[in-house]
Design brief:
With 106 residues, this protein is mainly alpha-helical. It contains four helices and no strands.
């Protein structure tokens, strides 16, 4: 269970760095760039720790899936990106895939 928690934290940090890219403005803003790079490093490190035990295909798919869902959701909230039904349905499909990987992984 510990490795799943590490993976969830890594995915959360992936959301932080993905959103941070917007605030860093192409790495032209110093402090947002520092925070973004720190989140990248921490996210990758925690993913690597989780992948010691979890299957890499599952760990990577969960990491990217949750990162994509979180980033899309924050994009809608923070940057006024579209939140139409089709887009939300696609996000639900990604969540279903992540849950399926958790349920069916060994």
């Amino acid at each position: 269970m510990k490795h799943w928690i590490l993976l969830l934290v890594a995915a959360g940090l992936e959301v932080v760095w993905a959103v941070g890219l917007k605030y860093a403005e192409g790495f032209t803003k110093f402090w947002p760039s520092v925070a973004t790079i720190a989140a990248m490093v921490a996210s990758m490190y925690l993913l690597a720790l989780a992948a010691r035990v979890l299957p890499i295909g599952t760990a990577y798919a969960v990491w990217t899936g949750l990162g994509a869902v979180g980033t899309a959701a924050l994009g809608m909230v923070l940057f006024n990106e579209p939140a139409n039904a089709a887009r939300l349905a696609c996000i639900v499909l990604v969540v279903c895939g992540v849950v399926g990987l958790k349920v069916f992984s060994t």
